[in-house]
Design goal:
CATH topology of chain B: MetI-like fold
Number of strands of chain B: 0
Radius of gyration of chain B: 21 Å
Oligomer: heterodimer
Structural class of chain A: alpha/beta
Helix content of chain B: over 70%
Number of domains of chain A: 2
Largest sheet of chain A: 6 strands, mixed
Structural class of chain B: mainly alpha
CATH class of chain B: Mainly Alpha
Distance between the termini of chain B: 48 Å
CATH architecture of the largest domain in chain A: 3-Layer(aba) Sandwich
CATH superfamily of the largest domain in chain A: P-loop containing nucleotide triphosphate hydrolases
CATH architecture of chain B: Orthogonal Bundle
Helix content of chain A: 25-40%
Strand content of chain B: under 5%
Largest sheet of chain B: none
Order of helices and strands of chain B: HHHHHHHHH
Distance between the termini of chain A: 16 Å
Shape of chain B: elongated
CATH topology of the largest domain in chain A: Rossmann fold
CATH superfamily of chain B: MetI-like
Number of strands of chain A: 13
């Protein structure tokens, strides 16, 4: 079922200079979609059209099957989680009050708010003692976790994230990315995630949409965008560096050949990356290594030719 | 030294007279402060919602501010006559600028990301204002309030020139009867009232700043 649907949507801040053009998009329930593209490609505008912060100047958007024009924008926004880059935590409110801000708007009782805040702080892996602290006492990574908890407070079906991890350091960002993937698996929310960082998009989304000049350049699984680029722009956008990130981020078992595995001189363990396998092969000058599981049982072989086939197989 | 002793003597001898003037001064100032606060904060908030007229309103209050106070008092006498009404109008016109400006600027300077987050999460305009913008702007608004209170108390001293009560009466009488001690005692009492209020409001401002920003210095 589609929870978000764009039909021929366009937006122009100034007449004649559209930032989004003729956009058709269907986002299914429970999907983790990353919107990626160079700055100025319209990805943030697209995100903000979903919760009505920006109105489309052309076309129609349906959210939960209902056209935006029939939604009360306030009611709509309370049903959609929203996380922004600078986090936007309220400096005058405690962490607990920040998390349950939407519930407060809805008039939920203080005791129920407190209960929900306790559940959510636990979910994002912060100590409950943080509930009574203030945003200024938290690190960038912790603030961003609170930002995510705040977006989850009203148990929304859809969560919009606009470059939420852009302002945190590399190490915290990795941790946050892993946590958001885990949260997505656990809560099955529909997530729209805007980023300009290709590696982040690789790490997070099951579905990637690449934008250029307000139009979809290509969408698909990460393998498709890397190995079957539809246009020269897609090819240059993903480039060799991202081929390397792809290999580093892909586990060896995803690309191995599990039919009739055979034992070779060198073995690699499930969970290591395809890049590790290639390094091993390069180092020992072999063209095939065995893949073993945690119990040291043989489960497959990694070979370049087969890996390439796996990468290039079409999706859906 | 002898002058100070004479002033002390005067203060003791005319205790009831001065107490009555201090009382009148406080009442006059408080009424003006109440008017200024209600009008100023409402207008300040209103122009954050009607940006097109914001500059016009700010420019108009600026112009009011540049009129010499004596001239404004004199000008009002020909419309509202001699007495407290004219004094209150003049005091309100003068004090309103810092309140409008600080309310407007305080609200406008709330981090746009915070405002966007609040709107994006489904705040109505009223909720945005009451739950986010005003609490965050409060230290700035209080700072404007503090300036205004000190200014109003000081300016109320001149109000007696158009027949209003307050410590200006003592100053005026001192000047017209060449009674320097009377003038100085009246002036000192005005200064004392202003400084006392400033001190108390300074404490309040620091308290609020610490609540909102966690430090007394600002963001």
């Amino acid at each position: 079922m589609e929870v978000i649907q764009f039909d021929a949507v366009g937006h122009a801040y100034q007449p004649g200079i559209p930032v989004v053009k003729d956009l058709n998009l269907r986002i299914e329930k429970g999907e983790f979609v990353t919107l990626i593209g160079p700055s100025g490609c319209g990805k943030t505008t697209i995100l903000k059209m979903v919760n009505g912060l920006i109105e489309p100047t052309e076309g129609e958007i349906h959210v939960h099957g209902k056209p935006l024009s029939e939604w009360d924008p306030i009611a709509l926004r309370r049903k959609i989680g929203y996380v922004i880059q600078q986090i936007g935590l309220f400096p005058h409110l405690s962490i607990a009050d920040n998390i349950t801000y939407v519930l407060d708007l809805e008039g939920v009782s203080k005791t129920d708010q407190r209960k929900r805040a306790e559940e959510l702080i636990d979910l994002i892996g912060l100590d409950p003692s943080y509930l009574d602290r203030y945003p200024r006492e938290l690190s960038g990574g912790q603030k961003q976790r609170v930002g995510v908890a705040r977006a989850l407070a009203n148990d929304p079906e859809i969560i919009l994230m606009d470059e939420p991890f852009g302002a945190v350091d590399e190490i915290s960002r990795r941790g946050l990315q892993e946590e958001i993937v885990a949260l997505h698996k656990k809560l099955k929310k529909t997530i729209l995630f805007v980023t300009h960082d290709i590696e982040e998009a690789f790490r997070l989304g099951s579905w990637m949409i690449l934008f250029k000049d307000g139009k979809i350049e290509q969408q698909g699984r990460r393998e498709e965008l890397v190995f079957r680029p539809a246009t020269p722009f897609v090819e240059s956008f993903f480039g060799l560096k991202n081929f390397v990130s792809y290999l580093t981020l892909t586990a060896v078992e995803e690309l191995m050949d599990s039919d009739s595995p055979r034992l070779t001189d060198h073995a690699i363990t499930v969970g290591q990356s395809a890049m590790d396998a290639i390094k091993l092969m390069f180092f020992h000058r072999v063209d095939c290594v065995s893949v073993k599981n945690e119990k040291n049982e043989l489960v497959g072989n990694f070979r370049l030719a087969h890996a390439k086939e796996q990468m290039e197989r079409p999706s859906k | 030294m002898a002058f100070i002793v004479r002033m002390g003597q005067l203060l003791v001898d005319r205790k009831d007279f001065f107490l009555k003037l201090v009382g009148e001064h406080i009442v006059l100032s408080l009424i003006a402060i109440a008017w200024i606060t209600v009008i100023g904060i409402s207008l300040g908030i209103y122009i954050t919602r009607q940006k097109r007229i914001a500059n016009l309103v700010l420019a108009m209050t600026n112009v009011l501010y540049t009129i010499p106070s004596i001239a404004l008092f004199g000008f009002l006498v020909s419309f509202t006559g001699i007495g407290n009404t004219s004094a209150l109008i003049a005091l309100t016109a003068y004090g309103i600028l810092p309140i409008i400006r600080n309310t407007y600027v305080g609200i406008e300077e709330v981090d746009p990301q915070i405002v966007e987050a609040a709107i994006g999460m489904g705040s109505t305009d009223r909720q945005l204002l009451l739950k986010v913008q005003i609490p965050i702007a409060l230290p700035v608004i209080i700072a404007g309030f503090r300036t205004m209170v000190v200014m109003t108390i000081a300016l109320a001293g001149i109000a007696s020139f158009i027949g209003a009560g307050g410590l200006g009466v003592a100053i005026w009488r001192g000047i017209t009867t060449n009674f320097t001690e009377m003038t100085v005692v009246g002036s000192l009492l005005v200064a004392l009232l202003a400084m006392g209020s400033d001190l108390i409001l300074g404490l309040v401002e620091r308290l609020i700043r610490r609540r909102v920003f966690g430090t007394e210095k600002g963001v």
